[in-house]
Specification:
Layout (H helix, E strand, L loop, with lengths): L1 H17 L4 H15 L4 H36 L2 H13 L4 H14 L4 H19 L6 H9 L2 H4 L7 H10 L7 H28 L22 H4 L1 H16 L8 H5 L13 H21 L7 H31 L2 H11 L8 H15 L2 H22 L4 H12 L9 H10 L3 H29 L3
Length: 464
């Protein structure tokens, strides 16, 4: 019965999100109702469990959300994001519409641009190219998902996306951890994704299916002049280079935390190792913003900079509060007797002598519950990271392997129908779940397959 209550709560959360209702409002309601049904007190569950866990997530990651959103908006306002997308898409042409869409999304995402901004920047050019090549528009979202929501989000070492930052906070690792595994999985994911989408395009052509009759969000790309792509890519390179320097070349003095530690603040970091990746990315994205402003200031007329900062800051609030609500929801569910029974079986998975099988199942399950990769992996590591670290130490496994594996696993069942990024992507493309979600789900299945391949890779070679 306890497990059924959890399933019902999750189904209702997916339903309301699918129908366009705010997760910020419904996540606490459904979490508290599930908790009360299993004997937890109502108000303490809401204020001392749901809200506390949500606030911890905001404390740890709001600067990254805010700066990333502002950086993305400035890249959008100056036309630099569109310039990069147009250059990649235009250079490969209609014959390679799917590949060029995925590549341009990957370049922008790995360069630190918010995935939401990537969608807006790429869509007009990709839609025009798909129309010219007469490829069904319903495949366009899955091409963007392949480039922006898969390997650049969680697999490639050094990715500045939040899914690659979170494990470092819990495991004391670097965002460059597991480079061999990360690069290998990225190559395999891109190859498998392109193979699938190429097959789908060929299927459509054999069936006589073309771009289709679409009117929603069908404005052609603007003819306004854009900056040169060679200049536009500089802010992305600055983010990657500064981030690498902060993580690998700078020796951070652990004593800088001493004055804060002396205050005994409840949410302050206990060790500098857990915040180096976050600090490095904050500095890197700030440098990227400064570079983008210096290059594109002439294009930010009529309050362009003010608008970018304001819209980015406000947009980041909505994004982080949505994920924080999902984190709060997931933590309440994780405290229930029904989930503890499920968690016991997941933690009891012993395939080999390491924690990877347990991690894979647990992280994918929680990411599926929350509909969020960052929210799910944050909850899973908050609950079980110490256990997994001890298990890894007992089997002589490098924590860096745990980092890369956890990050890859977070990008599995997170892309459910209730995932906020998927809902936004479909809205921008003017398509429905019915039209495009089956192919997006195929990308999800490929991502889950990458977790299995990662497990085999590490088990056979013992390196990451």
């Amino acid at each position: 019965m306890d497990v059924l209550v959890i399933i019902l709560s999750l189904v209702l959360l997916i339903y309301f999100a699918y129908r366009g209702y705010s997760v910020i409002f419904f996540a606490p309601i459904l979490a508290v109702l599930a908790a009360v049904s299993q004997g937890l007190p109502l108000m303490p569950t809401y204020t001392e469990l749901f809200m506390v866990k949500a606030v911890i997530y905001v404390k740890n990651f709001f600067p990254i959300f805010m700066l990333g959103a502002i950086f993305g908006k400035i890249m959008e306002e100056t036309g630099m994001a569109k310039s990069i997308a147009k250059a990649v898409i235009g250079s490969l042409g209609p014959k390679h519409a799917v590949l060029s869409t995925a590549l341009s999304a990957a370049i922008l995402t790995y360069g630190g641009v918010s995935m939401f901004v990537v969608v807006f920047a790429i869509y007009p050019f990709a839609a025009a190219l798909f129309r010219e090549a007469d490829i069904p528009k319903k495949l366009l979202p899955s091409a963007i998902v392949l480039g922006a929501f898969t390997f650049t989000m969680d697999s490639l070492p050094g990715s500045p996306q939040i899914q690659n930052i979170i494990p470092s906070n819990f495991l004391g690792t670097s965002i460059y951890s597991g480079p061999i595994l990360g690069v290998f999985i990225s190559i395999v994911m891109m190859a498998c994704g392109m193979t699938y989408l190429t097959w789908r395009v060929r299927q459509a052509k054999l069936a006589g299916e073309g771009y289709g009759q679409h009117t929603l969000n069908e404005k052609p790309p603007s003819d306004d002049p854009l900056p040169a792509w060679q200049v536009s890519i500089l802010p992305l390179l600055v983010v990657l280079v500064v981030n690498y320097i902060g993580n690998n070349l700078v020796t951070w003095n652990p004593e800088v935390l001493a004055p804060i530690a002396a205050m005994k603040l409840p949410l302050a970091a206990a060790s500098i190792k857990s915040v180096i990746s976050t600090w490095s990315l904050i500095i890197a994205v700030s440098c990227g913003i400064a570079t983008a402003c210096a290059i594109g200031f002439k294009r930010m007329t009529n309050g362009g900079f003010r608008n970018a900062v304001s819209l980015g800051a406000v947009g980041s609030l909505l994004a982080i509060m949505t994920v924080a609500s999902e984190v709060g929801y997931g933590n309440v569910i994780a405290s229930l007797p029904g989930f503890k029974a499920i968690a016991g079986s997941m933690l009891g998975l012993h395939i080999g002598d390491n924690p990877l099988a347990s991690m894979a199942v647990t992280i994918n399950a929680i990411c599926g519950i929350t509909g969020s990769a960052s929210g799910g992996v944050s909850i899973a590591l908050d609950l079980f990271s110490k256990h997994w670290l001890e298990w890894a130490a007992a089997s002589n496994m490098d924590p860096g392997i745990l980092h890369r594996f956890a990050s890859i696993a977070s990008g599995g069942f997170d892309t459910g129908p209730h995932n906020g990024a998927i809902i936004t992507l479909l809205a921008v493309c003017g398509l429905t779940h019915r039209q495009s979600y089956p192919d997006i789900f195929a990308m999800t299945c490929l991502k889950v397959a990458m977790v299995v391949i990662s497990f085999v890779f590490i088990s056979v070679l013992g390196v990451a």
